[in-house]
Write a structure and sequence with these properties.
Radius of gyration: 35 Å
Family: Belongs to the importin beta family.
Pfam family, one: TPR_TNPO3_IPO13_2nd
Subcellular location: Nucleus
Protein name: Exportin-1/Importin-beta-like domain-containing protein
Number of strands: 0
Distance between the termini: 57 Å
Shape: globular
Number of helices: 52
Largest sheet: none
Main location: nucleus
Strand content: under 5%
Structural class: mainly alpha
């Protein structure tokens, strides 16, 4: 090793030591940066390998170097010179032998490195039969290191589909085929190790790993295979239990993986597996009994045999087996046979386990079962409608008692724990997730039982818990709240015609005590059943009671007031006609909330919910009454805004954005939800001088302008062409202020105006001026990719506006003088990394090509050709550069869409432009075959083809060009999509 590499080696060891042990954060960061840079160097190969072979290297150095070597093999193998494969393979093999007994973290990294090497290097270079035969030879000749070689055997199939390994897609597919064809060799190797007791756990883990790659092995052959028998035997061994479960779960998946003959073809193996799994039921039942006794505080009683208190991981493993069996065989189980009901009973026991993590393993099964029982497509084989309905009813009859039991088994899990006030934020989040999951299960049960039946079962718990609330007895609010939560959870399944249980539930709500969590759930339940309130004949009589419950909740806690505001919005939406005569009472609630009087604990956002609620009721009024109600609704928002404007005229710096945005947000909700276009237009015209004053005072302030533009946007949407002259005044203000303050929201508001008024001939004059003014100024702001990156919101809203112009007023936009420079501007910004801005630019380009091929847009074809053709080579180059790495992979779909649209309009010309572009990429990055494949895909698109395989061919070029950082830099350096100058295409 050269003196330079010795120096690097010493520095590396010092950096690793500093990273783990230096007391100063800055020094640790510097060490981390140096180590990351080191991993990218060519020296990292030899230095890491040297330190791994060095007996004096400490554990931290070994871990770092093994990770580095693994990553280098995965990502940078191509930077090694020809002839390096054998020395590298032998070095990694020797390291496997060295670390056979540990450290395990290091050994695993070496195994992954060898698996990556196997993907890089074709089978013939490993000798006859590829990596599996090489591994077989090593196992046969060096049995002392068998633990390491078995781990490598486990890792190989796990890495078969890894995209961390920088190989070409074709080589990845080839490697997968090599491994799949070697499954029998792998099974033979594993079988040869079975007679060594200490290897059996490792053998079963490797067997599970290879089963994921196994295809086409007859079930009858597997059913009697010694590895399968070993997995089954492992269920009787404490030491082998978990690895046996892993293997059997993979066998279950194997039988359900969709072979041509379906599950029937796999029955020889299914018939071996299911009885063995069911043989664990007594053991699980005993552990369940012990767990339930322990949960009840009776664990020490003589009735519980301590031998049945299993290790928790063993219990989880058994539960996993039952759950996997249920998930994979759900259609068989849904037949309702005697055998399937035994499996159902086992799954019910798992669901009843007191540990939520164990019980939840079955939740997916219950969802799948209800889907199979209730969806018509699962009964197609029964022929006519009568036979289908008869079979559905037969199955429902069988499974109805099971789902009734299921409701009882899961309902208790939503109850607040006694120590809920002491729960951490993470524990509270877990509790909420549990409640959501239980709610989903209850909905599943309702699909089988009917919503009325599920409601009847759950409501019994509620009536029992709530009946003592008003009697002065000692009671547990948690039980009532839990039952009410479950009632709320199934609201979607309960028909609006239900008239027995819900009236009793609603009647009880007003009797509930002022307990915050209970009131919060009561409000959410009211909101969930708002449609029932809106349609049930007797529901009107409950509305005063409901309003009383909601106002009580508004004064109890912040959470309950938020729930009450949300519920009131839902009730007003569903009952708008019934509440039209109660506006005075609703206005009183709103005024108290807006003025923060009356003890209400409503937040600013909650008050907006009330405005939305009142807006919906006003919408139900006749126009003449709606206008007066709308004026009254606007006053609490307009008055404080006018006061702020007046005071800010004298001392503007004293006022924050919040003092403007709170009343503006209220107006925004009014404009959005009062669906009386003419009334809103009159109100907006009256309020406009106030809003214009805000534009004048605060145009420099992003927060205020965004809220104000949003309010104007909703007014435009609601009023449409009823806005009259106010719209031109508003656009004049936007135009002037944008040139001074460059707020992106001005562009967004303009795009909303274009959407509504773009096709109106009477608006053409001032809309044309608006378009020219806004785009001219924006193009001046976005002259380089750096400008785009520093102003992504402007870029996003600019090209959203441009797309709207193409769609709604192409007659104003496409022939305009601003169209060509805007296309140039879009080409500069395509490679912006900002997701929304990039999507808007690509959508704009797509819209250009779409309008050129649309029936109504053919008149613009010549104009578009005159703009696109001189830029076509450059645009093609930018798009291919984006495909090949200038944009993240998440943008591939949009980039390909533009390329395909361009190909559909210009046909073989695009192929020629692409050929010119792709020829710039050096052969060190892509092969001639990969070039040809890409161009063939484009040619197919040019001839009108459009298929997933075609898209896949285009994606493969991206995969090839991104396979590692070195290749990506070569490709981007050759195409330079960020530094192009326009070239004219003849």
């Amino acid at each position: 090793m050269s003196s330079q590499k010795v120096k690097v080696r010493d520095t590396l060891q010092e950096a690793v030591k500093a990273l783990y042990h230096h007391p100063e954060h800055q020094v640790r960061n510097q060490a981390n940066v140096w180590l990351q840079e080191f991993q990218r160097t060519l020296e990292a190969w030899e230095v890491s390998d040297s330190l791994l072979h060095d007996a004096n290297s400490n554990l931290e150095t070994l871990i770092f170097c093994s990770q580095t070597l693994k990553t280098k093999v995965q990502r940078d193998f191509e930077e090694l010179p020809q002839g390096t494969f054998v020395p590298l393979r032998d070095s990694l093999k020797n390291l496997l032998k060295k670390f056979c007994k540990g450290p395990s973290k290091v050994r695993t990294q070496i195994c992954i490195a060898l698996a990556a090497l196997a993907m890089h290097v074709p089978a013939q270079e490993w000798g006859g039969g590829g990596v599996l035969n090489w591994l077989s030879d090593e196992l046969g000749s060096q049995r002392g290191y068998i633990h390491s070689f078995l781990e490598l055997l486990t890792v190989l199939p796990q890495e078969a589909y890894s995209h961390k390994i920088a190989v070409r897609p074709e080589r990845r597919r080839q490697f997968q085929k090599e491994l799949i064809s070697s499954v029998e060799v792998a099974f033979n190797l594993l079988t040869s190790c079975l007679n060594v007791e200490e290897l059996q756990e490792q053998v079963l883990e490797a067997f599970a790993s290879w089963l994921r790659l196994s295809h086409g092995i007859p079930a009858s052959m597997l059913a009697s295979h010694s590895l399968v028998l070993a997995a089954i035997s492992g269920l009787s061994s404490e030491q082998l239990f978990e690895s046996a479960v892993n293997a059997i779960c993979e066998l279950i998946h194997y039988t359900a993986s969709g072979s041509p003959g379906g599950l029937a073809e796999q029955m020889p193996l299914v018939q071996v597996l299911v009885p063995q799994i069911m043989g664990l039921r007594n053991r699980f039942s005993a552990s369940l009994k012990a767990a339930l006794m322990e949960k009840q505080g009776k664990g020490g009683e003589s009735g519980v045999d301590q031998a049945y208190i299993e290790d928790e991981e063993i219990v989880k493993a058994m539960a996993r087996l039952f759950a996997e069996m249920g998930d994979c065989y759900v259609e068989l189980i849904a037949s309702g046979s005697n055998e399937s009901m035994l499996i159902i009973e086992a799954l019910v026991e798992v669901t009843s386990h007191p540990e939520y993590d164990i019980a939840a393993m079955t939740f997916n099964f219950w969802h799948s079962l209800q889907t199979v029982l209730t969806k018509r497509e699962y009964y197609a084989s029964f022929g006519n409608d009568a036979a289908i309905e008869a079979e559905k009813e037969r199955r429902r009859t069988i499974f109805r008692p099971i789902f009734e039991l299921l409701v009882s088994l899961v309902s208790f899990r939503v109850m607040y724990p006694l120590d809920y006030e002491e729960l951490s934020r993470e524990d509270l989040a877990d509790f909420k997730r549990t409640r959501y999951a239980v709610g989903d299960i209850l909905l599943d049960a309702s699909s089988v039982l009917s919503g009325e039946m599920a409601l009847k079962i759950i409501s019994n718990n509620f009536f029992q818990a709530a009946s003592t609330a008003g009697n002065g007895e000692s009671w547990d609010w948690r039980s009532a709240e839990a039952a009410l939560y479950c009632i709320r959870a199934i609201a979607r399944a309960v028909p609006t015609s239900e008239g027995t249980v819900l009236p009793q539930v609603i009647g009880f709500l007003v009797k509930l005590p002022l307990q915050p969590q209970l009131l919060q759930t009561a409000c959410l339940t009211i909101g969930a059943y708002s449609k029932w309130l809106g349609s049930a004949p007797a529901a009107s009589s409950f509305l005063p009671t409901i309003i009383e419950v909601l106002t009580r909740a508004m004064s109890t806690s912040e959470d309950s007031s938020t729930a009450a505001a949300m519920a009131l919005r839902h009730v007003c939406d569903a009952c708008r006609d019934k509440l039209a005569g109660s506006l005075d009472g609703l206005f009183l609630i709103y005024h108290k909330a807006a003025s923060r009087e009356g003890g209400y604990k409503l937040s600013i956002e909650d008050a907006l919910q009330l405005i939305e609620a009142l807006s919906m009721v006003i919408t139900a009024l006749p126009p003449e009454h709606a206008k007066k109600a709308l004026e009254a609704l606007c006053i609490p928002a307009v008055t404080p805004l006018q006061q702020v404007i007046a005071q800010a005229t004298r001392s503007p710096q004293q006022f924050s954005a919040n003092q403007y945005t709170v009343p503006i947000d209220r107006l925004s909700n009014i404009f959005r939800y009062v669906n009386h276009p003419e009334a809103v237009a009159d109100a907006f015209q009256t309020i406009w001088p106030t809003l214009k004053a805000v534009f004048d005072q605060r145009a420099w302030d992003v927060a205020t302008m965004e809220r104000l533009c949003r309010a104007c946007k909703y007014a435009v949407r609601t009023c449409g062409k009823s806005m009259g002259i106010t719209i031109s005044d508003m656009l004049q203000v936007v135009q002037v202020q944008y040139q001074v303050h460059h707020q992106s929201c001005f562009l967004y508001l303009s795009s909303e105006v274009i959407k509504i008024f773009g096709s109106d001939p009477s608006c053409g004059h001032y809309l044309g001026g608006l378009i020219n003014s806004l785009f001219s100024h924006t193009i001046g702001l976005l002259k380089s990719i750096q400008d785009f990156t520093s102003r992504p919101d402007i870029a996003d809203d600019c090209f959203l506006l441009a797309s709207r112009c193409i769609r709604y007023c192409p007659h104003l936009f496409v022939p305009s003088t601003i169209f060509p420079p805007l296309v140039d501007c879009s080409m500069i910004g395509i490679t912006i990394q900002h997701r929304e801005a990039c999507t808007s630019i690509l959508t704009f380009l797509n819209d250009i090509f779409d309008v050129a091929t649309s029936i109504g847009g053919k008149q613009y074809r010549s104009v578009i050709d005159n703009v696109i053709l001189p830029r076509a080579t450059s645009l093609t180059r930018i798009l291919i550069g984006s495909l090949a790495g200038a944009l993240p992979e998440s943008r591939l779909e949009e980039v390909i869409s533009v390329l395909m649209s361009m190909t559909r309009i210009y046909g073989i010309q695009v192929v020629n432009w692409a050929r010119e572009v792709i020829s710039l990429i050096p052969s060190t990055a892509i092969t001639d075959g990969e070039r040809s494949s890409f161009l063939e895909a484009l040619s197919s698109a040019a001839s009108g083809a459009n298929s997933p395989a075609l898209i896949g061919s285009l994606e493969e070029l991206s995969d090839v060009c991104r396979r590692n950082k070195t290749v990506q830099e070569i490709v981007q350096g050759a195409l330079q999509p960020l530094q192009l100058t326009l070239t004219t295409t003849s």
